[in-house]
Amino acid sequence: MMAMSEVLHLPTGNILTYNCSPQEAVVCAHEQQHRNFNTWSYDYTKAKLSQSGRVWYCGDFASLQSH
């Protein structure tokens, strides 16, 4: 079973919740910010992800990876 991932929208502080990994969750949030709600078409391999410690970033979104 996949754990829930919380994503923080950095400019507003809003929290979004996704049923996927933190890496996938920040990509979903970023795509949806740009009005792409076709989750089946997201190309996670081309997303501009970055990681700092246990935090994943994509655009204006961040998600903490658990232990």
Short description:
This protein has 67 residues and is α+β, with helices and mostly antiparallel strands. It contains 1 helix and 5 strands; from the N terminus they run E-E-H-E-E-E. Strand 1 (5-9) and strand 2 form a beta hairpin.
Strand content: 25-35%
What is the averaged pLDDT score?
92
> Which structural category fits the helices and strands?
alpha+beta
Order of helices and strands: EEHEEE
Distance between the ends: 16 Å
Query: What fraction, in percent, of the residue positions are helical?
Result: 10-25%
**How many H/I helices?**
1
Principal-axes geometry comes out as globular
Number of β-strand runs: 5
Strand order, main sheet: write it out: 2-1-5-4-3
The low-confidence runs, each spanning 5 or more residues with pLDDT under 50, are: none
Radius of gyration, in Å, reads: 11 Å
| Major β-sheet profile | 5 strands, antiparallel
How would you describe the overall organization of this protein?
The protein is globular, with a radius of gyration of 11 Å. With 67 residues, the chain is an alpha+beta fold. β3 and β4 (55-58) form a beta hairpin. The longest helix has 12 residues, at 22-33. The two termini are 16 Å apart. The model has no long low-confidence stretch (mean pLDDT 92). It has one helix at residues 22-33, and strands at 5-9, 15-18, 49-52, 55-58, 61-64. The chain has 1 helix and 5 strands; from the N terminus they run ββαβββ. The chain has a 5-stranded antiparallel beta sheet with strand order 2-1-5-4-3, with helices on one face.
